[in-house]
Structures are given as C-alpha cells and as structure tokens.
Amino acid sequence: MPREIIHLACTECKNKNYTTTKNKRLHPDRVVYKKYCKFCKKHTDHKEVR
Ligand SMILES: [Zn+2]
After folding, report:
1. Which residue of 10, 25, 33, 48 could cross-link 37, Cys pair, CB 3.0 to 4.6 Å?
2. For this UniProt entry, which residues form the secretion signal (predicted)?
3. What is the pLDDT of residues 13-38, one digit of tens each?
4. Residue 45 CA, ligand 1 centroid: distance in Å
C-alpha cells in the first residue's frame, strides 16, 4: 500500500505543524484536518502540503 508522508500546514499562518501519513488510494484529494496551531494558539484548519 503506498502510504505517503505529508505535511499539514496551518491555513492561517502557513506553518507546517504536523507530519502524517496518508493512503493516496483512499484519499486522493487534499485533506484538511482541524488541529491545534501553537503559533495561532487555537485550533485551525490544517491543509495538506508537500
Ligand atoms: Zn497557525
């Protein structure tokens, strides 16, 4: 199974706060996770970046 390492960047401050893996076959589109951003000091949407 091709699990790819992706980075999750805060959509507000653009910092890459998280690294995760994702199965491209199950999630071919860009994923967005609601996660805590230590720079914004709140939960924001984190978008997949490469
Ligand atoms: Zn942020």
Report:
1. 10
2. none
3. 999 999 999 998 998 888 899 999 99
4. 8
